[in-house]
Design brief:
This protein is an alpha+beta fold. Helices cover 30% and strands 8% of the residues. The protein has 2 domains: 30 residues; 156 residues, no CATH class. A 3-stranded antiparallel β-sheet has the order 3-5-4, with no helix packed on it. The protein has a two-stranded antiparallel sheet with strand order 1-2.
Length: 203
């Protein structure tokens, strides 16, 4: 005589099947969401870049003001581990950072190209000076900084999984399409800063 499964076992099996179907539905929904995502290259998504200190102040206001950290984006491997994965920047670049750059990486399934630490707003001077850093306006983002310290004259593209992604991350930030017009600190001739991407020029 064949054994019959218990009602508890049958109920557990049904619950597991339902959970699996729900996970598949969520995955399909996410795939559809990102397959429909497109860059926003309008003036909202990629606004005018300020030039020099006066242009920065005209655009972003005074350093360390209330708008300097009012845009929030979730980044894996970001620097503030105790802050649930969020990076804060100025709302002027919020859509470019959070919608264009962040979603570009997510849609390409390249989150593992990121590497700690990642951060934006920081009310501070440029190290060793009394000039405000663009981070004090929330107008810059440092990424993959553990492998790309100030003074290094090249970009180390190894991501969180150890794979060399080349210049994938810098290419998303800088230049024209698909880059998003951030100035790359590696281009400073006397003190390269490969981790640094700022939305301002001539400063």
């Amino acid at each position: 005589m064949a054994e019959r499964s218990s009602p508890i076992l049958r109920a557990s099996t049904v619950v597991l099947i339902i959970a699996a179907l729900a996970a598949m539905t969520l995955a399909e929904s996410s795939a559809r969401h990102f397959s429909e995502w497109t860059h926003d290259h309008s003036s909202d998504g990629v606004p005018r870049r300020p030039r020099g200190l006066s242009g920065i102040v005209d655009t972003y206001g005074q350093p360390c003001n209330g708008r300097a950290n009012d845009a929030r984006t979730y980044w894996p491997h970001q620097s503030a581990v105790d802050d649930a994965g969020y990076v804060y920047s100025h709302s002027y670049i919020g859509r470019n950072v959070g919608f264009n750059v962040r979603n570009h990486i997510e849609a390409a399934h390249n989150n593992k190209a990121l590497y700690p630490l990642i951060g934006s707003y920081n009310c501070r001077y440029i190290a060793g000076t009394t000039s405000w850093s663009t981070h004090a306006w929330g107008a810059a983002v440092d990424t993959n900084s553990q492998r790309n310290p100030v003074g290094q004259d090249h970009w180390n593209g190894r991501g969180a999984n150890g794979t060399n992604y080349g210049t994938y991350i810098p290419n998303v930030w800088r230049g024209g399409y698909p880059g998003h017009r951030f100035f790359w600190g590696l281009n400073w001739p006397t003190r390269p800063d490969p981790m640094h991407f700022q939305y301002a020029i001539d400063y």
